[in-house]
Design goal:
NPHP3-like_N, 10% strand, five-stranded parallel sheet, 9 strands, Nephrocystin 3-like N-terminal domain-containing protein, 47% helix, two-stranded antiparallel ribbon, 3 domains, repeat, Rossmann fold, P-loop_NTPase, alpha/beta
Length: 492
């Protein structure tokens, strides 16, 4: 085989192609006395486990919240839901901060407590090991190996001994060699179980490569295509365009979906969460004797629930800020509600702002994005919606431009059909009420700041340019995009 090793070049065996491997690397593997399973442990992202010490105190569902969603997922795993019984993969999707990771963590803990065979991978864009898919398969395989009978581990170790560089292979090859084939071998040995083996993959959208995100979905379906292994996979992510398109191409019967929307009473759950957490502050805070029993007022709770927009990240950010043992809770809640001004350098929403900034930085044309969002935030009355076609016409955009621009912002803003407009016209929906506060505060949004004066001046100039033609078209034409739009929408 030595003819294959001349520096860093590609070489091939019957089992496939390796990339950029040196002679020294191969010799070190060849002469190693380390067993196959020991080699596997060198390629594990321990921080990706649901019970990893690196993820100490991970987000999970507050007691008596998300009950319906958790029941639907656990019933799917156990095969108790007739409409999802045939599905082997479930996609839990929702906007940024909707609580997907908390749900995934809670499900993993429930399954662990019930002694299910469980493997998990919690992606995190800020972690070098969890921000890519390089260690995904090996991490899942390791967790299965320590929980399944010895046959699985032996088959896994043999795979490494036969192919010491399996970790350099494609995702498809790794899933086949390190997950599927050992599971098939295990079943052939006589292994059986009343429960499915479960894999939980959380935060798929935080994997650094959008193409790899889609491949993980494709490979997951390929892994279960033959339905000959007792495995189910739960994937949680934001509704990014590449992820959504990949799921949309999959057979309906093999996929179950859960969208974190108002169908699951998220507002009630958030109110319950806030009430419990404020009660904890009133009983445990060092200054609890200075907090009146009626704090916070029902109006304050209503405001916080409304600004949460069904997303738990806002509520949890507020609680962390108000509960600080080094500050007065009443004063801090007044800062959150805008009654008091924060001190210089004090940002109650630092975590939330970092999330907004990360998502907005993924947009190519930020100036155009701000023009569109500004139109919705500053011009459309709170009780009304404006069809996308009107906004595109007003900003002289081509039909479809807004949908293209928003395709990676689905966790913050989305283009949706509105049932109260003719032909289910598409409208822009902002999923976070607090996004407006962020964009209108220069100390928080910085280069994403929506300057009211500049934006109003810009829109006024556009209004003047459209005014003459609009008045004529409203009386003479029924086909122009502006027809039927009230004048106050355009002239403010």
């Amino acid at each position: 085989m030595s003819q294959y090793f001349h520096g860093a070049r590609n070489f091939s065996f019957d089992t496939g192609i390796f990339n950029t491997v040196t002679t020294n690397q191969y010799q070190s593997y060849k002469g190693s006395t380390i067993g196959g399973f020991d080699r596997l442990q060198e390629h594990v992202a321990y921080g990706a486990f649901h019970d990893s010490g690196e993820r100490f105190d991970p987000p999970k569902c507050h007691h008596n919240t998300r009950v319906a969603i958790i029941k639907r997922i656990t019933n799917w795993i156990s095969g108790l839901n007739e409409d999802t019984r045939e599905a082997l993969i479930m996609w839990l999707c929702g906007a940024a901060g909707a609580g997907k990771s908390a749900i995934a963590q809670t499900i993993a803990e429930i399954l662990d407590d019930q002694h299910f065979v469980l493997a998990s991978f919690f992606f995190s864009r800020n972690d070098p090991q969890r921000g890519t898919a390089k260690l995904l398969v090996t991490t899942l395989a390791y967790q299965l190996a320590v929980k399944l009978p010895l046959v699985f581990r032996e088959r896994l170790g043999l795979a490494f001994e036969k192919d010491p560089l399996i970790t350099t292979r494609s995702l498809e090859a790794q899933f086949k060699t390190l997950v599927r084939e050992p599971l098939v071998e295990l079943i052939h040995s006589g292994f059986s179980t009343n429960n499915h083996i479960v894999v939980v993959i959380d935060g798929l959208d935080e994997c650094d490569n959008p193409q790899v995100q889609a491949r993980i979905i494709d490979v997951s379906f390929d892994l279960l295509h033959s339905r000959d292994i007792p495995l189910k996979i739960l994937i949680a992510s934001r509704p990014q365009i590449n992820i959504s398109l990949s799921f949309d191409r999959k057979p309906f019967s093999t996929l179950a979906r859960i969208a974190l929307d108002d169908d699951y009473q998220s507002k009630d759950d958030i109110r319950h969460f806030l009430t419990d957490k404020f009660n904890e502050i009133k009983t445990r805070h060092p200054l609890r004797s200075h907090i009146p029993p009626g704090w916070p007022t029902s109006d304050s709770l209503d405001t916080l629930v409304r600004k949460s927009s069904g997303q738990f990240i806002y509520a949890s950010t507020v609680v962390k800020y108000v509960a600080s043992p080094h500050h007065r809770p009443i004063h801090r809640l007044e800062i959150v509600l805008g009654i008091q001004l924060p001190k210089a350098g004090d940002n109650p929403f630092a975590e939330l702002d970092a999330l907004y900034r990360h998502i907005l930085m993924g947009v190519e044309d930020v100036d155009l994005l701000l023009q569109i969002i500004g139109f919705v935030v500053l011009y459309i009355p709170s009780f009304s919606y404006c069809p996308v076609t009107y906004i595109e016409a007003f900003l002289s955009l081509a039909p479809g431009d807004i949908q293209l621009l928003m395709q990676n912002l689905g966790s913050l803003i989305s283009v949706e059909n509105h049932p109260y407009y003719p032909n289910d016209a598409e409208v822009l929906t902002i999923h976070h009420a607090s996004l407006k506060d962020y964009l209108l505060d220069p100390s928080r949004s910085k280069d994403f700041f929506l300057d009211r004066l500049k934006m109003h001046t810009y829109y006024a100039e556009l209004c003047l340019a459209h005014m003459t033609v609009l008045l004529a078209l409203q009386s003479n034409s029924s086909h122009h995009p502006f027809t039927g739009m009230p004048l106050y929408v355009l002239i403010g």
